[in-house]
UniProtKB/TrEMBL annotation:
UniProt name for this protein: Maltase
Biological process according to GO: carbohydrate metabolic process
Disulfides per UniProt: C56-C71
Signal sequence coordinates: 1-25
Organism lineage: Eukaryota, Viridiplantae, Chlorophyta, core chlorophytes, Trebouxiophyceae
All residue ranges annotated as the P-type domain in the record: 45-96
GO cellular component annotations of the record: membrane
Gene Ontology molecular functions: carbohydrate binding; hydrolase activity, hydrolyzing O-glycosyl compounds
Keywords of this entry: Disulfide bond, Glycoprotein, Glycosidase, Hydrolase, Membrane, Signal
Family stated for the protein in its record: Belongs to the glycosyl hydrolase 31 family.
Subcellular localization(s) per the UniProt record: Membrane
Chief localization: membrane
């Protein structure tokens, strides 16, 4: 019987879903059913190669020996990915494809905003080696919004990820027609999520798969089309690009200190979000809100989740575009942070600056080389033997105070590192106060857990504990009062630990070291610490916590979950086991740090964190960790950053030039050309010296590419505002803007930087050109008069060239208006004090549907004879806590060219005005008191011959508000003409340039520019020669020059009729 939720959003229909009770389409199934001695081999249908693989015997046994034990034999490749990352999982495993299902008992009952029901185990289940099944489960189907549906399967008392972690409002039901339909079968229970009114294959469908729910093993699956592309499930450094592999080898999610240079393994973060893009370009997302260790196996026809605890808490994000999926995701986990303006500049750090004197030398090196630098980031050498909140002997307080003061005078910033490990050292104030206030995570004996990191024997703060949060803030304040930092870098917070053990002790003589060798005595298992008296509050976890029944594919070799981290048996102040919250440690630490910085500075925080979970991007920036100075690592950094954006972590970057090993000048030059267009840009290294001023070629290209980045910061800051408002990544894969273009699906070495810019770097050693893909549209170089790339008839591959010291290939997509800072700038303060250049990129034909944009469609529906370009610029004080939404926080740029048939010319117009910030209210006034820059120049790209005498520039100002916050627009001051210093038109490149306007932007004033393109009917765009016809020698018409009496005087070489 069909039921409908009381509030009327989702349609919940009882539909019998067909399909066999056991899985179909299994891949990687090996072995032949032949008779051996002993136990008969299992039938092939009982063996699912994608898991779960419970070891049956020993490594190296033969197929015959495996089958003699009644087990499945299916060796996997010993490597994964394109770089051959080692893989070691059992080739011989227990039969694993038995049926497991539940029935929906008594049907659904309506709830306030969905349905609730009870699931009861059907039969005896399967895989008893993974533990007993939980017989009765609760099922909740919740309508979150017309585009978000939540389905949760769980049981009382099980761990769930707290909503309080997410910097997002509590999700409340919102009405409107639903975009989804929830269909289910009661016995055995299965369900499918479909798009409303669509006959397309469901976006999620469990029919024909099994549901398994044990204490420490949960499994569910969905069938998927072979033609779909899958993304997400980070964090890992993929050797095969942004699109996920479909070979059935499990992808593990378990935060782990593993070098980013080790590809195709789980590393620092866990992002249980899967995005699927169908062949028609529609997209949807599946979020599993679960922090326990898990594997996800992907084949050509199926996705299966294998989870070690918690609940099956699913959010279905219906899209239908990639931008929509990120909007919906970040409604749940929090919008990406709005970074402080200064943090968009270049940062520099190094593991190994041994004294404060080095700090001064580095600043001098950048200044002498004229390379922009905004922030000096201090690695742990500034501490006293790696002890947090201290200064070492070679970093005396007076020198550090002078250094921070000098940074302030130079409009630069300081960000020190903090590691979470607290040295066990009586007399060290932070340790002593931590012990006194009982802030540390406990081992199974009830004592602070003992491990080892940089300073030696260490404890780790329990950031789940409110007492710890306050204590942590006080430690930060103790440094801040002497050395007011501008942000904090949080490292090693997976947690990283030299040792593996449930209980460890210091035998004595454990000194600071950085070789990751454990010097402690450690024991594993329930008997660990047996010689130590248990504290009164100690509770021994169940035996299965020490050795979980299911081993995820951690490190591609089923590493123990406690390997070189906090043991899963450790406990927090409220008894929560690390087993459940390991992946959340960094989130709690970031939140505690953000609270401290906001309290001390009353400004927007900057935090850089290595470890992440869903929602981390709402609080902090992230970098990809310990890359090698290798060409492969440089290439792979791109897809890692793009994948982070899919998890709502928009402010992301990699260590420019590589962290470990040593780059040469060619690699570093190419890497800085790429890193200049990471959302987060930092040069960081350990081995040798590879600051950007060390090599002549690197310094030369740094001045160019970072100079262009700094010019683009007004645009980039605006793109971060869009990310913060609507959830879209700043650096995004091409398929976001062009989802229906299947060629873009696995392009992992180009990316869109916001709505307008396409980055296509050189990524191979010893090469100077590359083949780059240009999706449908017209693409202009922002640097010079290079001919445009015309792909208006469809996407095309084009050869691009760039020498080692050249600018990175960068193109502006027609249909956009991009604000740039004018001139060369050494800091972001210089950028804020500079004037603006507006770059207007005119499309060739607006009949072609434009690219998808985070900021929304540009103009009305495409129509012949009307060419639209638009953009905007967000502006505020740069680091205030409350993101401005007033009228004077956002200025819009709207350009339109309209064909005049009788005159056979385009009338062009650009309007710059305050129309209200996205996310603001329609009646918002000019209340932010924002000091806007001056618009000095305007460049219009892609216009036909322009009669420069037709150019007019006027400024209008609505009457002064009757009261604060109100703008009386009904009586406007008459437009005032503005005379630019110069107007030129370059016919070779189709570029109209208006110089020297000196127009001061001020709310609610409006700037208007008009021109006439024509009256030449014989103009066309030629890929090789630019806009034709050519004009006088030099390609320019002086201000006021009249048009020739007829078109033939301009020597047209090709004709077309608009």
């Amino acid at each position: 019987m069909a039921r409908q939720a009381a509030w009327g959003c989702a349609v919940l229909a009882a539909v019998l879903l067909s399909g066999p009770g056991s899985a179909e389409g299994a891949t990687l199934v090996g072995g032949v059913a032949r008779a051996y001695w002993g136990i008969p081999p299992p039938a092939e249908r009982d063996c699912e190669a994608s898991g779960p693989r419970i070891n049956c015997g020993w490594n190296g046994q033969t197929e015959a020996q495996c089958h003699a034990r009644g087990c499945c034999f299916s060796p996997l490749p010993n490597t994964t990915g394109s770089l051959g990352a080692p893989l070691s999982v059992p080739a011989c495993f227990l039969p694993n494809n038995g049926a497991s299902a539940y029935n929906l008992a008594g049907g659904f009952a309506p709830s306030d905003n969905g349905l609730v029901g009870e699931l009861r185990l059907r039969g005896n289940g399967s895989l008893p080696e993974l533990g007993p099944n939980i017989a009765n489960l609760t099922l909740m189907v919740e309508n979150i919004s017309p585009y978000i549906l939540r389905t949760k399967i769980g049981a009382a008392g099980r761990w769930e990820v707290p909503r309080s972690l997410f910097n997002a409002p509590n999700l409340t039901v919102s009405g409107g027609p639903a975009s989804y339909t929830f269909n289910y079968s009661a016995a055995p229970f299965s369900f499918a999520i479909s798009r409303s009114g669509s006959n397309a294959e469901p976006v999620f469908n469990t029919a024909g798969t099994r549901l398994m729910f044990k204490e420490q093993y949960l499994e569910f699956s969905t069938v998927i089309p072979k033609s779909s592309a899958l993304y997400g499930l980070g964090e890992r450094t993929s050797s095969t690009g942004i699109e996920l592999r479909r070979d059935g080898i499990p992808l593990a999610l378990w935060n782990r200190d593993s070098p980013a240079g080790a590809p195709d393994q789980n590393v620092y973060g866990s992002h249980p979000i899967l995005m699927e893009v169908r062949e028609d370009g529609t997209a949807h997302g599946i979020v599993l809100m679960n922090s326990n260790a898990m594997d996800v196996s992907l084949t050509e026809t199926r996705v299966t989740w294998h989870i070690t605890g918690g609940t099956i808490d699913l959010y279905f994000l219906m899209g239908p575009t990639p931008f929509d999926v990120l909007d919906q995701l970040t409604q749940i986990i929090g919008r990406p942070m709005m970074p402080p303006f200064w943090s968009l500049g270049l940062m520099n750090s190094k593991y190994g600056y041994g004294s404060a004197e080095f700090y001064y030398q580095i600043l001098e090196g950048y200044a002498n080389a004229s390379i922009p630098l905004d922030t000096f980031v201090s690695d742990s050498q500034y501490m006293d033997h790696d002890q947090d909140f201290t200064l070492g002997a070679t970093f005396p307080m007076d020198q550090m105070k002078a250094f921070v003061a000098m940074l302030r005078r130079q409009n630069q910033r300081w960000v020190p590192i903090l590691d979470p490990s607290i040295h066990v050292n009586k007399g060290y104030a932070t340790y002593d106060s931590g012990i006194a206030r009982d802030v540390f995570i406990k081992d199974i004996t009830g004592r602070p857990y003992v491990g080892q990191l940089w300073p030696g024997t260490s404890h780790w703060p329990d950031f789940m504990n409110p007492v710890t949060v306050k204590w942590w803030g006080e430690q930060i304040e103790g440094v801040y009062k002497d050395l007011p930092m501008d942000g904090i870098w949080l490292d090693m917070n997976e947690v990283s630990n030299y040792c593996t053990g449930d209980v460890c002790s210091d035998p004595g003589g454990t000194y600071p070291r950085n070789d990751f060798v454990c010097m402690l005595n450690c024991d594993m298992g329930p008997d660990a610490g047996r010689n130590v008296t248990l504290m009164a509050n100690a509770t021994l976890p169940a035996a299965s916590i020490f050795e979980p029944p299911y081993a995820i594919n951690s490190g591609n070799r089923q590493l123990d979950l406690s390997y070189k981290t906090l043991p899963v048996t450790a406990s927090h102040f409220d008894g929560t086991l690390e087993y459940n919250v390991h992946n959340l440690f960094s989130m709690y630490e970031v939140m505690a740090t953000a609270a401290a910085l906001q309290r001390l500075r009353n400004r927007r925080q900057f935090i850089l964190t290595r470890s992440t979970f869903l929602g981390s991007g709402a609080y902090a920036a992230h970098w990809t960790g310990d890359t090698n100075a290798e060409w492969t690592d440089m290439r792979m950094s791109i897809s890692t950053i793009l994948n982070n954006g899919l998890a709502g972590i928009s402010f992301s970057g990699a260590d420019i030039c590589g962290f470990m090993r040593q780059a040469d000048d060619e690699l570093c030059a190419r890497w800085v050309a790429i890193g200049a267009w990471y959302p987060f840009a930092r040069d960081h290294h350990a081995d040798g010296w590879q600051e950007l001023f060390r090599w002549a070629r690197v310094a030369e290209v740094s001045r160019k590419v970072l100079g262009m980045r700094y010019r683009a910061i007004p645009y980039l800051y605006t793109q971060h505002f869009f990310a913060h408002t609507m959830g879209c990544p700043v650096a995004r894969p091409l398929f976001f803007s062009f989802p229906a273009d299947n060629t873009t699906r696995n392009i992992s070495d180009q990316w869109m930087m916001g709505d307008a810019l396409l980055v296509s770097p050189i990524i191979y050693q010893g090469t100077y050109d590359r083949s780059a893909y240009f999706p449908r549209g017209l693409w202009f170089s922002p640097y010079d008069g290079s001919p445009a790339v015309d792909a208006t008839d469809g996407g095309r591959w084009v050869s691009l060239n760039a020498g080692v010291t050249d600018d990175v290939p960068l193109h502006v997509l027609a249909g956009n208006v991009v604000p740039l800072a004018k001139g060369h700038h050494m800091t972001t303060v210089d950028v804020r004090n500079s004037s603006l250049v507006l770059v207007v990129a005119v499309p060739k034909d607006n009949v072609v549907a434009p690219a998808a944009r985070c900021s929304g469609a540009c103009g009305a529906a495409p129509q012949s004879g009307v060419l639209n370009a638009c953009g905007g610029m967000y502006w505020d004080g740069g680091e205030e806590l409350n993101i401005g939404r007033a009228l004077d926080n956002y200025v819009s740029f709207t350009a339109q060219l309209t064909w005049q048939a009788q005159a056979r010319a385009y009338n062009g117009a650009l309007t710059v005005g305050y129309t209200g910030a996205p996310g603001g209210t329609p009646d918002a006034g000019c209340t932010s008191n924002v000091a806007w820059p001056v618009v000095d120049d305007i460049e219009v790209l892609g216009v036909g011959p322009v009669n420069v005498s037709s150019v007019t520039v006027t400024g209008t100002a609505p009457a002064i508000a009757a009261r604060p916050g109100e703008v009386r627009t009904s009586s406007a001051i008459a437009p005032q003409p503005i005379t630019p210093a110069n107007v030129t038109y370059n016919a070779t490149t189709g570029r109209l340039t208006i110089w020297g306007l000196g127009y001061q932007l001020a709310c609610p004033n409006t700037l208007s520019v008009t021109w006439v393109s024509g009256p030449i009917a014989n103009a066309t765009l030629n890929l090789n020669t630019g806009w034709l016809p050519a004009v006088t020698a030099g390609g320019q018409i002086a201000v006021g020059a009249p048009w020739p009496a007829n078109a033939s005087e301009l020597n047209p070489v090709a004709t077309s009729t608009p």
